[in-house]
């Protein structure tokens, strides 16, 4: 176990060839020599970012098997003893039985012929008593073999350093193992032992790297008994499956084991070198067990160690590596932009992801059998186009839009410090913060042919919006940090163009701390719905790094999750209607406009009325507010959406439309209270402009209701006042004779009734039990308590608008109080329910004044 817990344990299925791995015991002639030599590979011979080792180069390397496959590495330190890591054998605080483990010695490729290799049963596993977790140190184990190893050129022990020995910082040492070649990317067949050269890092230098927040926003306190090896820039490292294996350094012609592979934060990540158990520190513990256990010289005679090198300077400087990908030298420059030219078709836009690889949509290359010889890739600041050596399509490219990806390998790598650069790719656990600054850049064959509009500024919406606008009812919204199903940027459609680019596809590139990540891609166009949903690329990171073995997967650089990050409660999406999502309003720390259906209706440039978006092209308002009594001309009306409240969205996300017609229902004699305003063109659904839901037949059961308005008509910051809706009977009793049919009465919660001004005719809204917001009515002229209900106008609204969002009908309507058929008692008090009487009393004063 390590901190690299997110990854599944890689197990190499291992099938010993019959006869090759039999346990053998030492014959008298094979008995251990008195001065058993160590640390010398046979004279005839000689991970992440590593390469195949030569057979016989690391004869102390052991593969430790459990359940039929390789789990950890180890090193032979004496004929009957293997040194490994404690975490390989301790699960949930208890030591696994030795009998379940076997040691495979002298093996090179775990797939091919196993000459010289043999298996030993493990008789005992010893772990320091204080070991608990890798981060707390003491991560070492001794395995006693049931019978001594048969020494040969392929099986020899390594030398161990004395406790006093100091390895010089900066020394190039070697780590070996059959572990993953990258995070979540197991060593491919034929499972040849890998070696990688790692530099020893001084304690101060390593602590300095690990003190900075890195992957998973974590830091690490190094402890005595730990040592680091690797590079600040990462890319070469040990990984899962290498644990327990040796880190060896050559001194005076012999190899000494300086470390045991223990853990790290991920593999090969920037500023996160591998952490090893410092073997020298445990000399006494190792000697005590190895020498004490057997009569005779079980422990190799340690050679005279060379003089220790110069001491590490006290003031070791702290060299932090900065990201090498995703750096645009000037604003607007896009140095990873690649254009793939295939004879006979339009150029296809992709992105340079490493020295040798370009990522582009697979749909650009429907016929991969075409001659690659004629293909060319144009990169920024390169005089000549690059030639293409290979095309690797994603295996799901043809049926999964999110996997519409292909990688093109260039014939010759390009120099990334001179002109073209690689864009960063996110790790699977990357969480792009809502509000991140992004750009939409050309991707595939999409986008306009030329002109400035090849990139659009965009801002990432919260996962809630994105998920619920597209997700199905009741879908649970991924928590921040869980892999998102989609990413949605808010951006301004090119209004001037008066159209959405139907044939365009885009990549979404997001910036963190000045570094650009290729965050997501769109498939070709799926309608004009905004926000457009993008497929996150982070799920494809492992495939990209598997193919390229060098793409720049960069750690998350911005960690300020804000209140949304603290939200750990799973949220679900409210219902959708036949026409899509409506009445969405995130509960938790929303990013964006708080009331996306709330419109400012500016009438003839002075009066501002409240309007509610009921469909993309329609706003509902109170007739009395938008049409002056007695006026015969239809005023000029402008509607603004996305303006309400303290919106963090830029002004560019406001939407405005003029009103081209005002529709009133037919009413015998009376002036109808509700008016539908037809907009000059529909608005795109977005957090700035999303229709509210309607509910057939009155107030949805179990809902909570509010009057939504403005405190004052000048600054128009929305305020909501909590109300209860009274039963029709009670409402009728309170207002006998003066109420048109279908009027709703409300009762304000204490001290809430002065919250909204009434001149703008505020709406009455309810939120259903399942979370959707529903419009109930609009204020009657001059009244705080009376609302013209939508219910009686349902048929007219659906006929006029067409695509209104009616929620499914759900049971009997909600009323705040009992629903007796009789009027409550009069002031003299006769009979009836106490609560109803109380309401009656409460409601009287405003009515009398009104
Ligand atoms: C592991 O999981 C592991 N990059 C070993 C080493 C490292 C990370 C993980 C160091 O066994």
Summarize the structure.
The chain is mainly β.
Structure description:
The longest helix is centred in the C-terminal third of the chain and has 16 residues, at 834-849. Residues 1-34, 494-498 and 827-850 have low confidence and may be disordered. The protein folds into 3 domains: 7-23 and 46-298, Trypsin-like serine proteases (Thrombin, subunit H, Beta Barrel), CATH 2.40.10; 322-564, Beta Barrel (Thrombin, subunit H), CATH 2.40.10.10; 598-841, Thrombin, subunit H. With 850 residues, the chain is mainly β. The strands form 10 sheets. The protein has a 6-stranded antiparallel barrel with strand order 3-4-5-10-9-8. A 6-stranded antiparallel β-barrel has the order 11-12-13-16-15-14. Strands 17-18-19-22-21-20 form a 6-stranded antiparallel beta barrel. 4-(aminomethyl)benzoic acid binds at residues 2, 4, 237-240, 242-243, 261, 263-264, 267, 274.
CATH superfamily (homologous) name of the largest domain: Trypsin-like serine proteases
Mean pLDDT: 82
The CATH C-level class name of the largest domain? Mainly Beta
Q: Which small compounds were modeled alongside the protein?
A: 4-(aminomethyl)benzoic acid
CATH topology of the largest domain: Thrombin, subunit H
Number of domains: 3
Radius of gyration: 36 Å
Cα distance spanning the termini: 73 Å
Question: From the coordinates shown, what is the CATH architecture of the largest domain?
Answer: Beta Barrel
């Amino acid at each position: 176990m390590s901190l690299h817990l997110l990854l599944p344990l890689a197990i190499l299925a291992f099938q010993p060839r019959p006869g090759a791995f039999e346990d053998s015991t030492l014959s008298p002639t094979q008995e251990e020599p008195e001065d058993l030599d160590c640390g010398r590979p046979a004279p005839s011979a000689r991970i992440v970012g590593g390469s195949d080792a030569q057979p016989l180069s690391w004869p102390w390397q052991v593969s430790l098997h459990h359940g039929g496959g390789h789990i950890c590495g180890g090193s032979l330190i004496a004929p009957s003893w293997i040194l490994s890591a404690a975490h390989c054998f301790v699960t949930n605080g208890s030591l696994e039985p030795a009998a379940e483990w076997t040691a495979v010695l002298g093996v090179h490729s775990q797939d091919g012929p196993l000459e010289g290799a043999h298996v030993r049963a493990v008789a005992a596993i010893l772990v320091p008593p204080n070991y608990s977790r890798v981060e707390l140190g003491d991560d070492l184990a001794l395995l006693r073999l049931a019978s001594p190893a048969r020494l040969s050129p392929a099986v020899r022990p390594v030398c161990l350093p004395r406790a006093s020995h100091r390895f010089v910082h900066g020394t190039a040492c070697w780590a070996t193992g059959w572990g993953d070649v990258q995070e979540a990317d197991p060593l491919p067949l034929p499972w040849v032992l890998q070696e990688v050269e790692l530099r020893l890092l001084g304690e101060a230098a390593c602590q300095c790297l690990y003190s900075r927040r890195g992957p998973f926003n974590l830091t690490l306190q190094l402890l005595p008994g730990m040592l680091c090896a690797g590079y600040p820039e990462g890319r070469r490292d040990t990984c899962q499956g290498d644990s327990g294996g040796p880190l060896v350094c050559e001194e005076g012609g012999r190899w000494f084991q300086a470390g045991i592979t223990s853990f790290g934060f991920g593999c090969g990540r920037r500023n996160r070198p591998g952490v090893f158990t410092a073997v020298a520190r445990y000399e006494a513990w190792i000697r005590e067990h190895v020498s004490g256990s057997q009569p005779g010289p079980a422990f190799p005679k340690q050679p005279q160690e060379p003089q220790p090198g110069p001491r590490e300077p006290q003031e070791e400087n702290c060299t932090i590596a900065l990201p090498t990908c995703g750096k645009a030298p000037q604003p607007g420059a896009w140095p990873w932009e690649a254009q793939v030219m295939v004879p006979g078709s339009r150029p296809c836009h992709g992105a340079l992801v490493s020295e040798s690889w370009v990522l582009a949509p697979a749909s650009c290359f429907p016929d991969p059998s075409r001659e690659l010889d004629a293909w060319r890739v144009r990169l920024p600041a390169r005089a000549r186009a690059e030639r293409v050596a290979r095309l690797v399509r994603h295996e799901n490219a043809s049926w999964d839009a999110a996997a519409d990806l292909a990688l093109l390998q260039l014939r010759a790598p390009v120099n990334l410090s001179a002109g073209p650069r690689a864009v960063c790719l996110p790790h699977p656990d990357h969480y792009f913060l809502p509000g991140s600054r992004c750009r939409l850049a050309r991707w595939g064959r999409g986008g306009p042919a030329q002109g400035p509009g090849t990139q659009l500024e965009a801002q990432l919406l919260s996962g809630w919006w994105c998920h619920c606008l597209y997700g199905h009812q009741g879908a649970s919204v991924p928590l921040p940090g869980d892999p998102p199903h989609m990413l949605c940027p808010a951006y301004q459609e090119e209004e001037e163009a008066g159209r959405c680019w139907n044939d365009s596809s885009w990549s979404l590139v997001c910036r963190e701390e000045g570094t650009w990540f290729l965050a997501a891609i769109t498939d070709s166009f799926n309608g004009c719905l905004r926000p457009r949903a993008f497929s996150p690329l982070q799920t494809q990171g492992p495939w990209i790094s598997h193919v390229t073995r060098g793409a720049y997967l960069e750690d998350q650089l911005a960690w300020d999750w804000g209140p949304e990050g603290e939200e750990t409660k799973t949220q679900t999406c409210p219902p959708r209607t036949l026409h899509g999502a409506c009445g969405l309003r995130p509960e938790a720390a929303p990013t964006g406009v708080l009331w996306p259906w709330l419109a400012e209706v500016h009438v003839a440039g002075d009066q501002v009325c409240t309007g509610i978006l009921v469909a993309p092209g329609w706003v509902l308002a109170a007739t009395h507010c938008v049409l002056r009594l007695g006026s015969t001309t239809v005023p000029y009306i402008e509607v603004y959406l996305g303006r309400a409240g303290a919106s963090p969205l830029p002004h560019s996300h406001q939407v405005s439309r003029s009103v081209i017609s005002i529709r009133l229902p037919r009413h015998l004699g009376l002036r109808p209270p509700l008016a539908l305003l037809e907009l000059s063109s529909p608005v795109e659904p977005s957090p700035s402009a999303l229709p509210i839901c309607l509910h057939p037949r009155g107030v949805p059961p179990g809902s909570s209701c509010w009057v939504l308005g403005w405190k004052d008509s000048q600054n128009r910051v929305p305020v909501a006042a909590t109300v209860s809706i009274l039963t029709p009977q009670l409402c009728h009793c309170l207002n006998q004779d003066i109420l048109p049919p279908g009027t709703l009465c409300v009762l304000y919660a204490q001290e809430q009734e002065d919250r909204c001004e009434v001149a703008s005719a505020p709406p009455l809204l309810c939120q259903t039990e399942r979370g959707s917001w529903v419009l109930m009515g609009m204020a009657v002229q001059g009244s705080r308590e009376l609302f013209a209900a939508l219910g009686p106008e349902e048929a007219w609204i659906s006929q006029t608008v067409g695509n209104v969002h009616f929620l499914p009908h759900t049971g009997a309507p909600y009323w705040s109080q009992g629903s007796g058929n009789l009027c409550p008692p009069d002031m003299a008090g006769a009979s009836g329910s106490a609560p109803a009487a109380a309401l009656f009393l409460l409601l009287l004063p405003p009515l009398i004044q009104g």
